[in-house]
Design goal:
288 residues, 2 domains, globular, disordered C terminus
C-alpha cells in the first residue's frame, strides 16, 4: 500500500482519484485506480445512500462554489447543483437522497437544499465559522464542527437532529475542529483539531455524544483523514512531512507512519472512503 500511494501522488495533483477494491485481506480492501474526476479545490466528497452518485465540492471562482455530480459506474458527470454565495466547505447527502446539507462558513449556518433544483429547504444557525460535518449511519444526526477565533481557539461539535431541525447536543473541544472521519457501521466519530500547538485527534461516541478518547498529534495540519473500513485504524495525513500517521482506533495510540512521497508539493487531504464497489482518494497540492 505504501508504494501505491507514492505512485498515485506522482499521477495526480488537484483532482479526485477514483479507486476500486481489487481484493480483501483481514476485512481491509486493496485498491487500484479506476479513473480521475476533474474537480477544482475539492474539500468535500460524499456518496449517495444508494451508492449510485458521487457529490464533490467544486470551486468555479472566488465566492462561487457548488457541487458536481458523477455516476459511480461510468465516472461521468451527470449534473451539478448549488452555486452558493458563500463558502460551503462541506456537504453531505440526506438519508432520502433528495437533498444536500452543507456548512455555510461565513454565515454560521448549516443549510439543506434540494438536489433537483437546489431549492433552500431549511437553515439552522450552529455557531461561528462552521466547517466540516459528518452524518451518523442512519443519516439523521449531523455532527458539525464550529469555532470562534475570538474565544482562544475553543471550538465544539454541534449535533443536529435533521429530522427535527434542532441542535440536540454540544461537545466542547480544546481547539478548533477541522475535518471529521467515520467508518460505516462504526458508532465512533473522529475529529481533528487544527490550531498550532493543540493538534489533537478526538474520538466521539456517536450515540452518547461524549468524548471517549484523544491523541495529541503535534504538527499535523488541517487535512482530510480516513478511518479503516472495519474501524480498526485511523489514517491521518501530515502534508508538510508527506506521510500518513496510522493510529490504532481502540487504544488511540500511533502504530506507525507511511511515507507518501519523498518529494513534491505538500498535500492537503487524504481520503479512502469505501462505499459499495468504490473508494475515493483525494489529493490536493495546495491549501484552499
Amino acid at each position: 500500500m505504501k508504494g501505491f500511494f507514492a505512485r498515485v501522488w506522482s499521477l495526480i495533483l488537484g483532482c479526485l482519484c477514483i479507486l476500486i477494491p481489487t481484493g480483501v485481506s483481514a476485512q481491509e480492501y486493496d485498491y487500484s485506480v479506476a479513473g480521475y474526476l476533474p474537480v477544482s479545490q475539492c474539500s468535500s466528497v460524499d456518496v449517495s445512500p444508494d451508492g449510485g452518485r458521487i457529490y464533490a465540492r467544486h470551486v468555479y471562482q472566488a465566492w462561487d462554489d457548488g457541487y458536481l455530480i458523477f455516476d459511480t459506474s461510468t465516472l461521468s458527470q451527470v449534473g451539478e447543483m448549488c452555486h452558493f454565495g458563500d463558502v460551503s466547505w462541506s456537504g453531505r447527502v440526506a438519508a432520502d437522497g433528495q437533498s444536500l446539507w452543507t456548512t455555510r462558513y461565513y454565515s454560521g449556518l448549516v443549510s439543506q437544499n434540494g438536489l433537483s433544483d437546489c431549492s433552500p429547504l431549511r437553515e439552522l444557525r450552529v455557531g461561528s465559522w462552521p466547517d466540516a460535518l459528518v452524518f451518523d449511519d442512519a443519516r439523521r444526526f449531523l455532527f458539525v464542527g464550529e469555532n470562534d477565533p475570538g474565544t482562544g481557539a475553543i471550538g465544539s461539535v454541534q449535533v443536529v437532529d435533521t429530522a427535527l431541525g434542532t441542535i440536540v447536543a454540544g461537545i466542547r473541544l480544546n481547539g478548533e475542529p477541522g475535518r471529521f472521519a467515520k467508518a460505516r457501521g462504526d458508532r465512533y466519530i473522529y475529529v481533528l483539531t487544527r490550531n498550532p500547538g493543540t493538534e489533537r485527534l478526538y474520538k466521539i461516541d456517536g450515540v452518547s455524544h461524549t468524548i471517549v478518547g484523544s491523541l495529541d498529534l503535534p504538527g499535523v495540519n488541517d487535512a482530510g483523514f480516513s478511518v479503516a473500513t472495519n474501524g480498526s485504524r485511523v489514517y491521518i495525513p501530515n502534508r508538510d512531512r508527506r506521510l500518513i500517521h496510522v493510529v490504532d482506533a481502540s487504544s488511540m495510540t500511533e502504530q506507525t507512519t507511511w511515507q507518501v512521497a519523498a518529494s513534491g508539493s505538500p498535500f492537503w487531504g487524504f481520503h479512502v472512503v469505501p462505499h459499495g464497489s468504490h473508494g475515493l482518494l483525494l489529493l490536493i497540492s495546495a491549501p484552499i
